[in-house]
Amino acid sequence: MTSDSTVPGDSVDPFRNERTVRDEAPQFVLPLVVRIERDAPPARTDALETAARAVLTILSDERAVGDGEWAQVVRDWQDARIRKVVRRARGAEWRRAEALPGITVTGKSAEVRVFPPVPLDGWPKDLARLQVSGTDLDDPEPPADADPTAPVLWLNPDLDMSAGKTMAQTGHGAQLAWWELSDEERTAWRQAGFPLSVRTADPAWWAELTSSGLPLVKDAGFTEIAPGSATVVTEHPALRRRG
Description:
Layout: E1 28-35, H1 44-60, H2 71-78, E2 83-89, H3 91-98, E3 103-106, E4 111-114, E5 118-119, H4 125-128, E6 152-155, H5 163-180, H6 183-191, E7 197-200, H7 203-209, E8 216-218, E9 230-235, H8 237-242
Parallel strand pairs: 1-2, 6-7
Antiparallel strand pairs: 1-4, 1-5, 3-4, 6-9, 8-9
């Protein structure tokens, strides 16, 4: 499932629907694969949180910054629309995905592997064959209240999205917050293990969040929901203090 945005500080609306000169450049996508074994699927909220941490993990990895081996492709990806696609795998499919360069991030019940960006039309064969649609998960029990001292990715209560689609959105929300943090704030978050929660906002709280100035994800409308739909607001304590 996909959506997109552009780099921080860009004068172009990062959630534009119209084409710009950047859309004429080569386009890349960040692949994420969630492990969903038939007899032991992960809890939905844990998968959403693990996907968000996976995005932060690759953004902060030494291979993705400076002169690292993934740095150029990560820059090329972030210099356009930050597309993400979530696919699912199990058994031998998952083992083949794990053999490709990437990072596996583990939650309480979820495993998500994130890979360096690839061209839109240049997916590795073992990832291209994995299914995108039908990534539906449930929470066996309602998630506990979010930790108020840690970042919270708030979901739009009025949208009904598949787990795969929502994983892409929470990845965007985490990335937008990462862009707005200082180097010191990024380091502190990384050293703490990227604590965060994903929760659905109360409708009244959602209205306040979307006008708060906190990082807001609006979907490009490629799949499932209408273009421009607000999907996630990221409430990071450091960003809230600035407001």
